[in-house]
Structures
1.
Amino acid sequence: NAGVTQTPKFRVLKTGQSMTLLCAQDMNHEYMYWYRQDPGMGLRLIHYSVGEGTTAKGEVPDGYNVSRLKKQNFLLGLESAAPSQTSVYFCASSYQRTGGHQPQHFGDGTRLSIL
Amino acid sequence: GNSVTQMEGPVTLSEEAFLTINCTYTATGYPSLFWYVQYPGEGLQLLLKATKADDKGSNKGFEATYRKETTSFHLEKGSVQVSDSAVYFCALMLWDGNEKLTFGTGTRLTIIP
């Protein structure tokens, strides 16, 4: 059971380059999330999706775009990478349940460096 | 707005010592509270949760009690092991249909034999 899989695991970009991070989950989860983790900042929500074809902004959405064309996949795009986007990126997914929290299942992260 | 404040790290303890990691929160409503753990090189995993006042969450020897009067959710373990070395995150969620978590900054715990 793969759970949540993120690709790639590591990437180095130059300022201005673009790239897409892929998140795939095999648990049939409705909700998916993209976070970034920075030292001393904890995890901050970038964008999230409550179902196929829907996306919404989180706490720090600027400079990122997302798409959820298939239920199992959630893509995070950087159109023009900046050094401030150097971070570790985590994808997570969870079941939908009204009135109660379902645990978020996390991938192992993508370490991204922007030079 | 909503926020979580947790104990600054890093924390270093000897094996079998007692652990407390403090967590307090500010929320505009009545949140659910969580502790997530991140082992080296991995993503976060849910450790325990509590959804209403005076609830105690517990797992793997860890415990935390939801204290509404002090807006706290401190993590405790009576006897830590080397395998407990990880980063621990306190988090809250206010149900608004979107299941968004607000995380604290994390506390790195190192247990030495």
2.
Amino acid sequence: EAEVAQSPRYKITEKSQAVAFWCDPISGHATLYWYRQILGQGPELLVQFQDESVVDDSQLPKDRFSAERLKGVDSTLKIQPAELGDSAMYLCASSLLATGNTGELFFGEGSRLTVL
Amino acid sequence: GEDVEQSLFLSVREGDSSVINCTYTDSSSTYLYWYKQEPGAGLQLLTYIFSNMDMKQDQRLTVLLNKKDKHLSLRIADTQTGDSAIYFCAEFGGGYNKLIFGAGTRLAVHP
């Protein structure tokens, strides 16, 4: 069964360091999402791609976060420098249809970040 | 504002029914969802309901939608220990062209 792949599963870093997360969506899924889930809260959208284009990054802290999906397939989310408040689960999801679909997202297992 | 609200915790006995409630904000939302998250895992879509429906049944799951009160519920019949997880309500469409999640309800099933 096709899955959304994410790496690393766990990352521990010190504040002010740079971290990067990678996501490979389900093959053929045009839309890719990065969500942040703080412990005890629901996921919050950071950035949404349609193919290689960003369609929503309104909640992405652009002073320290960046995301790219250069060839419209896999994606990287980077944080530099990391802060204590960035400790969270970073979830990648993909969907088959474009923005405005039924909202059926397929999630990866997430990358848990701990900033010390 | 964007605010989907859920109760944080529900405890039920194995074999009983569970009812998880949610209130959402945007009356023009087109779809409403229930996602399940098991420990250490990503979210899995359980079911969804289109806004012009008031009920949807899928095996042990029943979704009820009250558009007037902007209230959504998920009923799990014959709850099993494998149903223990966090359940997220989410809305899509209307003014927000993205999924807005609630904080999740942790369901604990005990013998």
